[in-house]
Amino acid sequence: MVIAAGTPATSGFDHDRLARAAIRVLIQNWHGHATVPSRSLYPHQWSWDSAFIAMGLEHFAPRRAAVEVLSLCGAQWSDGRIPHIAFNPAVADDAYFPGPSFWQSAEIDGHPPIDTSGIIQPPVHALAAAAVLQGLGQEGQAFAGRVYPHLVAQNSYLRQRRTVGELAAVVHPWETGLDNLPTWDAPLRAVPSDLSLFKIYRRRDLDHAPATERPTNEDYSRYIRLALAYRDSGYDDDEVRQNGEFLVVDPAFNALWARSELALAEIARSLGQDPGGHLAEAERITTAVVDQLWSESRGLFLARDESTARLLPERTVAGLIPLILPGLPAQIVTSLYETLTGDCFQAGQEDVRGVPSFDLTDPRYDPHRYWRGPTWLNTTWLVASGLAVHHKDALAQRLRDDMVALVANAGLREYFNSQTGSGHGTTNFSWSAALLLQVIASGSMG
Ligand code: 2M8
Predict the structure, then answer these.
(1) Which of 139, 166, 179, 362 is labelled catalytic?
(2) At how many degrees (to 10) do helices 251-270 and 377-389 cross?
(3) Which of 296, 299, 364, 390 could, after both became Cys, cross-link 339 (CB 3.0–4.6 A)?
(4) DSSP at 368
(5) pTM, whole model, 2 decimals?
(6) Residues facing residue 45 across a β-bridge
(7) CA distances from 18 to 25, 56, 299, 416, 446 (A)
(8) Within 6 Å (CB) of ligand 1, which residues are found?
(9) Burial 316-355 (b: 16+ CB within 10 A, else e)
C-alpha cells in the first residue's frame, strides 16, 4: 500500500497517521515468520488471527503476508487440522496458558515439527490466501500452488472429522474464536466447573488484562476440563463427537467454512484447475446453514447445541456473519439487515460503533467483558464485508468508518465498548491493526 501524503480522510481522521501506527504495531508483533496477536497476552501465532493479519499485511507487505499464511500451514497436522495456536519455541512454556506442555501435540502421530494446540479456529484462511494472491501480482501463482493443498486439506478435515450431519461442530468454545459468548452459557452448564484445577494450572491472561474483562474462573476451569478431555482422547474426533461434553454447531464457523470454499474456487481457477467441486461444496454448506440454523422469529442465525439438538436463542454477532454468503435468500438478507440495525445491535445508529458482539437488550450484555458485548474489529469487518456482498454499501461504509473512529479515539485495542468507544483488553493488538489497514487501503483505492 502506498500511503500518500494527504490521503483523503473520509471519516474525518488522519488516515496516514493511523496507518503508520498500525504498521508499527504489525512490525513490533512480527517474530520472524509470523505475527503474534499481542506481545503480552498472546505471544504465539494464532490461527484465525494470522488470517486477519495477512489481509492487512497484504496491502503493504504482500510477501510477508504470504509468509504469515504459509508459516501457519507449517503447523498443520497430517489429518488436515490447522491448530489454533502454533507455539514459538523461543517463548517460555509458561508465557501463555495453556502452553505446549499442556497440549502435548508431539505425542500425536502426524504432528507437525513444532508444538501446537490441538483444537481449531474458524476457517478464514482461504479468504486471506485469496486476498494475498491478488496482492502478490505475478508472484501470486507460486504462492497459490503452495498454499492450495494445505487449505484443501483443512476443509477435508472439517468435512470428514468434524461434521454432525451436514455442518461442522466445534468441541470447545475457543474453537469458535468468539470464546465467551453468552450462547455458550447453557451448553457449558453441562461441563462441571472444577476450581481445584487452579491448584495445578495458573491463568496467565489475568497477568495482562483485568479480571472484569476476561472469562470467569468458573468458565475457565470448564475450558481447561474440555481441552484436557480432548487431549487425553488423543484428539480423537469420533470420541468427542459421541461423548464430548461440549458439541455445538456455530453459524459463523459454518458460514466461514462455506465462504472459504468460494475462496478456494478462486484459488483453483488461478491455478487453471476446475473450481466446480468447491462451488458445489459452498452451495451445500450454505443450504445447510440456511435450512438448519436460520431463525425467523429471532431474525438471525442461531447456534445449535448437539446435546439437546436445539437452537440456542442468544442473538450474537455470530448470527449476522453468514451475511458474507452470496447465496443467501433475499428475504433472509432483509431480515438480517433489520436485526442488525434494530434495537439488539443498533448498527449505524448515532450512539453505537461497529457491531456489538452481543444483544444490547439482553440483561447479560456486558460492554467490557471479552465477547459478551464489546465491538471487535474482526467481526465488525466480516459483517461490513457481508453487507457489501449484498449491496448494502452505505451501512458497510459506516461500519468501516466506525472501525477507523474506534481506533482513532481509543488506540489499537483488542475490543471496544460499543457505546462509549472506550478501548479494552490488550493494547497493540494485531488484527485491529491489520484490519484497520485493510479498511484504509480499500477506501483510499476507491
Ligand atoms: C482469544 O482467545 C484465546 C484462546 O484462543 C484466549 O483468550 O486466550 C479470542 O479472542 C480468540 O478469538 C483469538 O484468536 C485469541 C488471540 O487473539 O484470543
Answers:
(1) 179
(2) 60
(3) 299
(4) S
(5) 0.97
(6) 86
(7) 11, 13, 36, 17, 18
(8) 37, 42, 46, 48-49, 84, 174, 177, 179, 205
(9) bbbbbbbbbbebbeeebbebbbebbbeebbbbbeeebbbb
Q: Is 402 annotated as catalytic?
A: no
Q: Catalogue the E-assigned strands of 276-327.
A: 294-295, 300-301, 304-305, 310-311
Q: List pLDDT tens digits, range 120-158.
A: 999 999 999 999 999 999 999 999 999 999 999 999 999
Matching residue, cell 476457517: 123
CA atoms within 13 A on the CB side of 387: 25
Query: Which residue matches cell numbers 468468539?
Result: 178
Task: Please give the distance, rounded to the nearest whole angstrom, from the Cα atom of residue 178 to the centre of ligand 1.
Answer: 8
Cα dihedral 405/406/409/415 (nearest 10): -170
* DSSP alpha helix (H) spans, 294-429: 330-341, 377-389, 393-410
**Tens of pLDDT along 282-325?**
999 999 999 999 999 999 999 999 999 999 999 999 999 999 99
Q: Which residues in 381-407 are b (16+ Cβ under 10 Å) and which e?
A: bbbbbbbbbbebeebbbbbbbbbbbbb
**Which of 36, 46, 375, 380 for a ligand 1 pocket mutation test, highest count of atoms within 8 Å of Cβ?**
46
Instruction: Please list the residues that pair with 310 across neighbouring strands.
Output: 305
> How far is 270 from 274, CA to CA, in rounded Å?
10
Q: Which residue in 261, 326, 249 sits closest to 289, CA to CA?
A: 249
Which grid cell sits at 35? 505475527
Query: Is the separation of the CB atoms in 51 and 69 below 8 Å?
Result: yes
Residues present in the chain in total: 446
Question: What's the start-to-end Cα distance of the chain, in Å?
Answer: 13
From atom 11 of ligand 1, which residue's Cα is the shortest distance away? 177
Question: Rounded to the nearest whole angstrom, what is the distance from the C-alpha of residue 177 to the centroid of ligand 1?
Answer: 6
Residue 366 annotated as catalytic: no
Cα–Cα dist 325/334, whole Å: 14
Which residue of 26, 179, 220, 377 sits with most ligand 1 atoms within 8 Å of its CB, as the best mutation to test the pocket? Answer: 179
160-178 tens-digit pLDDT: 999 999 999 999 999 999 9
Residue with the smallest CA separation from ligand 1 atom 5 is 174
Residue with the three cell numbers 501506527? 21
Tell me the chain's radius of gyration from C-alpha atoms: 20
pLDDT confidence of residue 443 = 84
To the nearest 10°, the Cα dihedral for 337, 351, 317, 297?
A: -50
